[in-house]
Design a protein that fits this description.
Elements lengths: L2 H9 L1 E4 L13 E7 L1 E5 L2 E4 L2 E5 L2 E2 L7 E2 L5 E2 L1 H13 L4 E6 L1 H4 L6 E7 L2 E2 H7 L4 E2 L8 H9 L12 H11 L2
Parallel strand pairs: 5-10
Antiparallel strand pairs: 1-2, 2-9, 3-4, 4-5, 6-12, 7-8, 9-10, 10-11
C-alpha cells in the first residue's frame, strides 16, 4: 500500500476525549485529528487531505484586501498574509484538531480547528507575526499575541489597515 494512501487512512482519527482541543470539558466531545501537508487557501484557512480548516480564534485579511504602508502607499496585505502562512508550513506536515464536524463547522462549511506545525500553534504564530488578528468575536486565545505584534509594528501593524471582519462587511454591502 502506498504511503500516501496509508497516511490518509491513518491520519484521520476520531476519538472520544474528555477534553476538547479548545479546553472545553465534555465527555461526549469528539475530537477530529488530521495530519498531512497543507494547501493554503488564505491567511486563516488551509486544506489537509481534502478537508478545509479555518484557524480557530484568528482573522487574517482577505486575499483581495489591501492595507496602507506607513508612508501612505498601498500593499496587498491579504496576499502577503497568505504567503506568510504558506512559508511557515512549507514542506512540513500540519496537524489540526477540531470538534466533531456536525458541531465544529463554520457557516461556510469549514472545520474550525487549532492547527500545529511541530507543536507550534499556527494561529498563535500568525497573530504574533502580525499577519492575523485575534478574532475576539469567537475567542480571546490570542489577544496577548496581538498586543505583542502591535507593539512591535509587525506585519499588518506596520501601517494602516481595516480589520478583516469590517472589510468583509463593507465589501458585501457594496455588492448588494
Amino acid at each position: 500500500m502506498a504511503l500516501g494512501h496509508m497516511a490518509k487512512v491513518a491520519v484521520i482519527m476520531i476519538a472520544l476525549s474528555p477534553v476538547c482541543a479548545f479546553g472545553e470539558t465534555d465527555m461526549t466531545t469528539t475530537v477530529i485529528t488530521i495530519t498531512g501537508p497543507a494547501r493554503i487557501i488564505d491567511g486563516d484557512t488551509l486544506e489537509i487531505l481534502g478537508e478545509v480548516h479555518r484557524l480557530h480564534g484568528i482573522d487574517a485579511p482577505e486575499r483581495a484586501q489591501t492595507c496602507q504602508t506607513h508612508d501612505g502607499g498601498m500593499w496587498l496585505c491579504g496576499r502577503r498574509a497568505s504567503q506568510a502562512l504558506r512559508d511557515h508550513v512549507a514542506g512540513r506536515d500540519v496537524t489540526c484538531y477540531g470538534a466533531n464536524p456536525g458541531k465544529s463547522l463554520g457557516r461556510y462549511g469549514r472545520h474550525i480547528s487549532k492547527c500545529y506545525v511541530h507543536d507550534q500553534d499556527v494561529g498563535a504564530w500568525m497573530v504574533s507575526q502580525g499577519w492575523a488578528l485575534a478574532y475576539r468575536r469567537y475567542a480571546d486565545d490570542y489577544v496577548h499575541r496581538e498586543v505583542f505584534a502591535k507593539g512591535g509594528r509587525r506585519g499588518l501593524w506596520s501601517g494602516g489597515f481595516i480589520p478583516p471582519w469590517i472589510w468583509r462587511r463593507t465589501k458585501s454591502r457594496k455588492s448588494r
